[in-house]
Amino acid sequence: MRKTCAEKISVLQCACFSREEVICMSAYCEVCQKGAMSGMNVSHSHLKTKRKWKPNIQRVRAIVDGEIKRVNVCTRCLRSGKIQRAI
Questions:
Q1: How far is CA 74 from CA 7, 8, 29, in A?
Q2: Separation between Cα atoms, residue 58 and residue 32, nearest integer Å
Q3: Which residues, 6 or more positions from 30, have their beta carbon under 8 angstroms from its beta carbon?
Q4: Do 48 and 75 form a contact (C-beta atoms < 8 A)?
Q5: What span, in angstroms and rounded, lies between the C-alpha atoms of 71 and 61?
Q6: What is the pTM of this model?
Q7: How many other CB atoms are found less than 10 A from the CB of residue 59?
Q8: Which DSSP string do the residues of 20-58 spell out, in sequence order?
Q9: How many CB atoms lie within 10 A of CB 29?
Q10: Could you report the average pLDDT of every consecutive run of 10 residues in the chain (87 residues)?
């Protein structure tokens, strides 16, 4: 069960997800569900600080189920042709 951005998103805005799984809309790819990952920066002296790696998300117009919709898609899905852009 992933719960992120639960404070910012109301249940009405997240109708497509169950209450146990709330994902911040702008932080993940709607095609492959790739989201932000966390880890550590490690300096030369081996000091560690927390950081995040975010996917390169683009908001594009795409054809979904025969309709043109705006979707958040990572650049890897765009490049590999997993989604068809509307022109």
A1: 24, 22, 5
A2: 13
A3: 71, 72, 73
A4: no
A5: 6
A6: 0.63
A7: 11
A8: T-B--GGGS-TTT----EEEEEE-TT--EEEEEE---EE
A9: 22
A10: 43 45 72 96 98 95 94 95 91
